[in-house]
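Study this one:
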Amino acid sequence: MLRKLYQLVPVQEAPAEKGVAAFATDFLMGGVSAGFSKTASAPIERVKLLIQNQDEMIKTGSLSEPYKGTLNSP
């Protein structure tokens, strides 16, 4: 029974694209995916930085009260 589950099946590889068009496609897809990931993670990164720096900012007077949540943004 286990032998059937672990039988290796040959994998057919897709033909490799070559040339400038393939490079441009890969480059563009990488740029778009990076843009989406940076856009999605930017608000989380901002909250992280606010929490990390709030004590020092309160001491220097540039922040009047600690961060209380996402609705507490300037």
